[in-house]
Amino acid sequence: MNDAELHKRYPWARLHALDYPVRLDALGAVLEEIRAAHGPARGAYGLGQSGRLIGDSADTRRVRRLAKQVAPSLATVLILGESGTGKEVVARQIHDQSGREGPFVAINSGAIPEQLLESELFGHERGAFTGAVSTRAGRFEQARGGTFFLDEIGDMPAVMQVKLLRVLEERVIERVGGTTSIPVDVRVIAATHRDLPARIEAGKFREDLFYRLSVFPIEIAPLRDRTDDIEPLVFEFVDRLCRDRSVSLDIGADAIERLRRYAWPGNVRELANLIERLVVTRPNGIVTARDLPWPIVDDRTDDPPFPEVIGAALTTTGDRVRLPADGFDLREHLAHIEQGIIQNALAEADGVVQRAAERLGIGRTTLVEKIRRYGLKRESKGHK
């Protein structure tokens, strides 16, 4: 096997062939090849092999209809929804139904350092900056004739928002260090979990860019609001993992019911990760509600079984706590208590996280993580 065949089959082998110290542009090209060769299959969650969105809920049917409706056009699409709801899956479906022959190119605007984002989007000319020893096409050029998906557009720096607006209006780009305008034939789809009108009001997002992006908005509901999707998604993930790993897994009806009652703060991504975990922990087995991990098994809608324990935790009455004969899961019950306390603190603080954190005597970052973990809503007594 010669070097060319070796590098094609095993892209990481090229790392050993680089000249050291490594040039940034050369390293980036190799890492891109490795990611392309070993990245997750298209539609990591929510998209079946048939290229359709998985789910039976009214919201999923609406999203399918909107995607099919807008796909043949060149209209810019803005996909809104919480993290993990499947925004990229919807973008890919639009591309697949568009008839465009070019590639689908995706980039996460919030995951790339600000100083590298312009070069990543628009490319650079040789000598544009230290380490730029050759000309490199950016993602817009790579997506020529196809679809360019800009994820987490709400986190894009202000300077880049101006440059993106020009691309959307004129369909031309300029590489970093270049002076030539390069026309690009791309369909742009953007997505964000941010509240863009709120960011506009806070001066963090351009209003003109918002209107230019939201020519055709599509909003995806969180998984907790479309519970009819949970069962078909579960079976799709089980089938896919069983095919890939030659194992079998049977999800019992009681487990499905428990999954339907869970809040899913991580949405479809969290569900996919759970099924992958169960394939590991219960290979060739049957999953019941008891096999589901915390906090899913702790997401109760009924009253806590021992309310006197809550009183003892919050007051020092000196009364003796009576425990059940068959034992007591203290960790789960304390977590249930903590959820209630945090929710009350948020309500008392009128939904302001910083104020609630001060009332609880913990840091804001700690409280934000607990809110995310428990899937709590930051709602005030009188308004959201």
Q: Please give the number of β-strands.
A: 11
Radius of gyration over C-alpha positions, nearest whole angstrom? 25 Å
Overall mean pLDDT: 78
Strand order within the widest beta sheet: 2-5-8-1-9
Provide the low-confidence segments as ranges.
6-10, 36-51, 299-319
Tell me the helix content.
40-55%
The CA-CA distance between the termini, in Å, is: 63 Å
Task: Write a concise keyword list for the protein shown above.
384 residues; alpha/beta; 5-stranded parallel sheet; 16 helices
Give a verbal description of the structure.
With 384 residues, the protein is of the alpha/beta class. Helix content is 44%, strand content 10%. The protein is built from 16 helices and 11 strands. The chain has helices at 3-9, 24-38, 58-70, 87-96, 114-122, 139-142, 158-170, 196-201, 207-213, 230-245, 253-261, 267-281, 307-314, 330-348, 353-360, 364-374; strands at 77-80, 104-108, 123-124, 136-137, 147-151, 172-173, 182-183, 187-192, 216-219, 249-251, 285-287. The strands form 4 sheets. The protein has a 5-stranded parallel beta sheet with strand order 2-5-8-1-9. The chain has a two-stranded antiparallel sheet with strand order 3-4. Strands 6-7 form a two-stranded antiparallel sheet. Strand 6 and strand 7 form a beta hairpin. Helix 10 (230-245) crosses helix 12 and helix 14 (330-348) packs across helix 15. It is globular. The protein starts with a helix and ends in a 10-residue tail after the last helix. The model is unreliable at 6-10, 36-51 and 299-319 (pLDDT under 50).
